[in-house]
Amino acid sequence: MRRYAYAIPYWLWIGLFVIAPIILIVYYSFFDIEGHFSLVNYETFFTPVYLRMTFNSFWYAFLITAISLLIAYPTAYLLTKTKHKQLWLLLIILPTWVNLLLKAYAFLGLFGTYGAVNALFEALGIGTKQLLFTDFSFVFVSVYIFIPFMILPIFNALEKLNPSLIDAARDLGANEWTTFRRVIFPLTLDGVKAGCQAVFIPSLSLFMLTRLIAGNRVITLGTAVEQHFLVTQNWGMGATIAVFLMIAMASIMALTGNKKWGVRQ
Amino acid sequence: MDDRVIIRFDHVTKQYDDDLPVLDDVSFEIERGKFYTLLGPSGCGKTTILRLVAGFIEPTKGDIYFHGKRINNVPANKRQVNTVFQDYALFPHLNVFENVAFGLRIKKMPKADIERKVKEALRFVNLEGYEQRAIHEMSGGQRQRVAIARAIVNEPDVLLLDEPLSALDLKLRTEMQYELRELQRRLGITFIFVTHDQEEALAMSDEIFVLNKGKIQQRGTPKDIYDEPVNRFVADFIGESNIITGTMIDDFVVEFANQQFTCVDHGFAKNEQVDIVIRPEDLELTTVERGKLRVRVDSVLFRGVHYELCCYDTHGNEWLVHSTKKADIGEEIGLHFEPEAIHVMKQSGGE
Ligand SMILES: Nc1ncnc2c1ncn2[C@@H]1O[C@H](COP(=O)(O)OP(=O)(O)OP(=O)(O)O)[C@@H](O)[C@H]1O
Ligand SMILES: [Mg+2]
């Protein structure tokens, strides 16, 4: 029995902070705005308004993940080749220590009508542009915020890759691109998956940025949850959306689940 | 230029950062269709030579020629050379079949041909029926054989093998030595084989390069290297030897252990200090009276085919003797040897 005693704090933690909140959310999702038990929230979720929101959430999360991946992979690859890897890595991790809200405000300053970027545009003769409150700025800032979480797992996967595998591919006649496609990428796929999870899942439920940077032009499920809990006080509907978000996240985790193989022999 | 020469190293030096050079001004030629062995202790630069030939690294100084063309800057994928890597470097995400087929697929060979060639290569390394196995399901020795199959299936001009047999048990190892040699003869391609096992080198090679500290100490046929080592290092590395210092009194007369002996070597300066090698199997047990050297037996080991006797002469020199006759510990015996058994080497000599 003593063996199980060590697990008690762990189970307490899981129960208190993981299982209980999930049960609560599911429980709330079955109450309408007046506090009566009903399935109306689930009906509402399948109306065009919310379906459109769901689609938006997925679309933006996809964009953010895809763009992060496109930038992060080459970056991580170059990082493994540099001399002072640890320093560069630190520089990439550093921004993640800064509060999200602060970073958002920093961009408000940078992208604002009288911000630094527009000042530069003026100087170059391009003229002031509307940067804030656009899809572009939303995706840009989100990518900026999430990209370290994409770079890190890919960097780790590349570091673990046995360099003689690359030699072997070249030896067997593969050019650089083929080596990447047939050896490097497949063997770092686990890192890519981990990075995509780490970016896609939080992107799906982004809310603050949508208001601050996108000026509510981008309404995602995350925004909706926030609005229902804080503004309309329709906790039931907010909980229902949260349930769908959790289902979505769980399925993504399941889909990108890792198949294991030894990278090094 | 001799058109049998397929690879030529011309004063090649390889240096990492500011360390001592890993290869130090090495020049040699490799001829078509022969079996070469690079032999030397760990860290002497064997793998480095293979990597230069394969094109994974470039020389710091000097030039490498392939079929007479300078290839210093030709990338690995453009060289008609394949490698069996020291750590196998099999692709863990591909099964055995796909590993072996990798090079053929890149050449865009028709499917049916790939199928046939891969099967044939796997049959050669005794791995029929393992096509669908994942690499992590194979033992160390099996992986090594997959690596060999993956390289030979491409039928390169030159095959580089970096200690390909080191993970095999004695029986399989001997068998593979035999079969690799056979394969080399059949395909007629050039093999450059790396090992630090001198017996393997002697058994398999047309020509051996003995390396130490980034320099070629001696190159020659196995018999040359065994019978006429040029210096103490080579003599010591190739098989067990008795190496002692001596003086060349005159042509055909050498002095060691305070005695003069006739030998077959000449061309040294008078009274030049030299190293003397006598192989343990060239020493013959006899009575004290008939022996040229008088020694006391210190220890006796039974080695299967022969006894290994460790003896000391009156001057404290150690003599290792391989003999089918047994002697008792502490017994005084005589050692007889022919003049041809004495190999005289210049001290600190190169070729
Ligand atoms: N990338 C590198 N950077 C610095 N030094 C290196 C590098 N690669 C090899 N060396 C050094 O070069 C020397 C020769 O290495 P090499 O791999 O050729 O040895 P080897 O003869 O194959 O030894 P072994 O029998 O142990 O495989 C070693 O001292 C090694 O430390
Ligand atoms: Mg080596």
TrEMBL record, chain A:
Keywords: Cell membrane, Membrane, Transmembrane, Transmembrane helix, Transport. It is found in: Cell membrane. It holds the Pfam family BPD_transp_1. SUPFAM superfamilies: MetI-like. It is a multi-pass membrane protein. The chain crosses the membrane at residues 12-31, 58-80, 87-111, 131-155, 191-214, 234-255. One of its GO terms (biological process) is transmembrane transport. Residues 54-256 form the ABC transmembrane type-1 domain. One of its GO terms (cellular component) is plasma membrane. PANTHER family: INNER MEMBRANE ABC TRANSPORTER PERMEASE PROTEIN YDCU-RELATED, INNER MEMBRANE ABC TRANSPORTER PERMEASE PROTEIN YDCU-RELATED-RELATED. Belongs to the binding-protein-dependent transport system permease family. CysTW subfamily. This is Spermidine/putrescine transport system permease protein PotB. It comes from Anoxybacillus ayderensis. The lineage of its organism: Bacteria, Bacillati, Bacillota, Bacilli, Bacillales.
UniProtKB/TrEMBL annotation, chain B:
SMART domains: AAA (SM00382). Residues 7-238 form the ABC transporter domain. SUPFAM superfamilies: MOP-like (SSF50331), P-loop containing nucleoside triphosphate hydrolases (SSF52540). GO terms for molecular function: ABC-type putrescine transporter activity; ATP binding; ATP hydrolysis activity. Part of the ABC transporter complex PotABCD involved in spermidine/putrescine import. Responsible for energy coupling to the transport system. Belongs to the ABC transporter superfamily. Spermidine/putrescine importer (TC 3.A.1.11.1) family. This is Spermidine/putrescine import ATP-binding protein PotA. It comes from Anoxybacillus ayderensis. The lineage of its organism: Bacteria, Bacillati, Bacillota, Bacilli, Bacillales. The gene is potA.
